[in-house]
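Example S7 (structure tokens).
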């Protein structure tokens, strides 16, 4: 099935790709994965889910990251304050969401087990529920992808520091719909050992 055929066009994507990869020791976005890179996979998942526009927020090695996605349908937003925390990148990305968008899906570029089908399922549940938020839940952990309705954009644009919107989620506790995913899907890439863990998970699935 072509995932894009049923994707809404009024939901934007905000892909956070500005981090410094300090614990990995090299830029994790360019680690090899499936014949491409971790960044390639994240962009493909978001575009495959029909998010439009897809806003990629860059900071660390901004020119390199921007060049890597230059041949895709993305909009680059540079965050000069990326070193002050992930929420500054989220605020910058949401500020670039066009007027008239009904919602934005926030994604992290270093979560390679998030795919287009997950994103579409989350957006569909948000539409059905009519809530301001639709969150992904991995066991007891809430993490991206997360759908923020347009009513929350002003709060997201005011964020500063770390946390990636957790303050907004906490403020609207009880107003969200949650979609549960297997805890293993939460896998992100922070340290070199995570690469072996990812390989083992994918081999077992």
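Recovered sequence:
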């Amino acid at each position: 099935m072509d995932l894009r055929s049923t994707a809404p066009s009024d939901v934007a994507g905000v892909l956070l790709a500005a981090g410094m990869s300090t614990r990995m020791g090299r830029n994790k976005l360019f680690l090899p994965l499936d014949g491409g890179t971790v960044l390639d996979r994240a962009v493909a998942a978001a575009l495959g889910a029909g998010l439009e526009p897809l806003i990629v927020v860059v900071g660390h090695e901004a020119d390199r990251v921007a060049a890597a996605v230059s041949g895709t349908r993305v909009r680059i937003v540079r965050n000069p304050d990326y070193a002050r925390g992930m929420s500054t990148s989220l605020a910058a990305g949401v500020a670039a969401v066009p007027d008239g968008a009904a919602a934005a899906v926030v994604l992290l570029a270093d979560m390679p087990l998030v795919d287009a089908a997950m994103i579409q399922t989350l957006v569909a549940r948000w539409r059905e529920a009519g809530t301001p938020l639709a969150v992904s839940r991995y066991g007891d952990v809430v993490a991206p992808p997360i759908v923020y309705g347009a009513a929350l954009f002003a709060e997201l644009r005011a964020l500063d520091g770390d946390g990636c919107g957790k303050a907004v989620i906490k403020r609207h506790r009880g107003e969200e719909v949650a979609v549960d995913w297997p805890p293993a899907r939460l896998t992100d890439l922070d340290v070199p050992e995570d690469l072996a863990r990812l390989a083992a998970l994918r081999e077992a699935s």
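Notes on this example. The longest strand covers residues 141-149.
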